[in-house]
Amino acid sequence: MKTSKIAVVLSIIVFLFIVVAGILAFLNSPPPAFKSGVRFRVEKGETALAVGNRLEESGLIRNSGFFYFLVRLSGKNVKAGNYFFKTPVPAKEVFTVLTEGLQEIVTVTIPEGLTARKTALILKENEVISDTEEFYECIKDSDFLKGLGIPMDSAEGFLFPETYNFYKFMDSYDVVSMMVGEFFNVLNEIDSSVAGNADKLKETVILASIIEREYQIPEEAPVISGVFHNRLEINMRLQSCATVEYIITEIFNKPHPNFLTYDDIEIDNPYNTYVNWGLPPGPVSNPGKVALSAALNPDDNDFLYFRLVDVDTGRHHFSKSLTEHNNASEEFYRSVKK
């Protein structure tokens, strides 16, 4: 009788030892299938059970049941977000990361005037996104763009330049949503009537994207806007170098030119405002607040021309006639040769 009791006790001890060993193994060592550089996303409202199942399927934990038990025992919840595991970690760390919402923050500044392609490269360099191709697909997703209030076939022009606190390896759709959301916040501060008018919105963003690439001194942005408005009113071609540069770098995928040649300004392309009248079919950069405000609030002037006359300060000379413009150009070239 005593022998049988001892056997039962030993069996229980062995069982408990196996259970404890299993729990310790689960908690303290990553599973063999756990690979380096794994991105894992928890959706809003997703249950711990569902998350545990996906973690096991992804090879991040050994047993989803243990994970679910651990979450229930702790009284915590998994938090929605984008998580990145650079190297394999034990289940207890996976548990801590997901229940504490430990997403790594990356502060990134997107300068004014960049194209979507160059913006994507900065985001990838800073590990905000892992794939630029996914980003490019996202900014051309028609259903997604419609939901964001963008009346165009691309988010080019709507990726607002700003300093952002992103998480590492976010979904491209979340990144674009943040940037477009900031665009509309700023636009509504300038003029709340524009966002609801598709034609006005499109014209504003396209013109602002050109102004962004042309001005260097903020005070000159409304003056440059006035020049472009004057040209549009009399059906005069905009003749903006920024549109030709966009063709070369973004459509032809060539390096940014140091200067434009006569062949460049004669390129047969809808974006070329040297050969086509009116605005180009889409934005040529992502404008900031100064350019957006200038596009909507042009200076009331009679100027039709402008040219850079001070390379150091970025100052332009504005002219009412071609003769005056040419004289300013000749004076500039003479000063450069000295």
Short structural description:
The protein is mostly helical and 338 residues long. The protein has 14 helices and six strands.
End-to-end distance, in Å? 113 Å
| Average pLDDT, all residues | 91
The proportion of residues in beta strands is: 5-15%
Shape: elongated
Poorly predicted residue ranges: none
Percent helix = 40-55%
Number of helices: 14
Overall tally of structural domains: 3
List SSEs in N-to-C order. HEHHEHEHHHEHHHHHHEEH
Radius of gyration of CA atoms, rounded to a whole number:
29 Å
> What kind of sheet is the major sheet?
2 strands, antiparallel
- Strand ordering within the main sheet: 1-2
The class by helix and strand makeup works out as: mainly alpha
The beta-strand count equals 6
Question: Could you characterize what this model shows?
Answer:
This protein is mainly α. The protein has three domains: 19-100, Endolytic murein transglycosylase (Dna Ligase, domain 1), CATH 3.30.1490.480; 105-190, 2-Layer Sandwich (Dna Ligase, domain 1); 213-337, no CATH class. It contains 14 helices and six strands. A hairpin with a 4-residue loop joins strand 5 and strand 6 (315-319). The longest helix is centred in the first third of the chain and has 27 residues, at 2-28. The radius of gyration is 29 Å and the shape is elongated. The termini are far apart. The mean pLDDT is 91. Its main location: membrane. InterPro entries: MLTG-like. The chain crosses the membrane at residues 7-27.
Secondary structure layout plus pairing:
Elements: H1 2-28, E1 38-42, H2 48-57, H3 64-74, E2 81-85, H4 91-100, E3 105-109, H5 116-125, H6 132-138, H7 142-148, E4 163-167, H8 172-190, H9 198-214, H10 221-233, H11 241-251, H12 262-265, H13 289-296, E5 305-310, E6 315-319, H14 322-337
Antiparallel strand pairs: 1-2, 3-4, 5-6
Helix pairs in contact: 2-3, 9-10, 9-13, 10-13
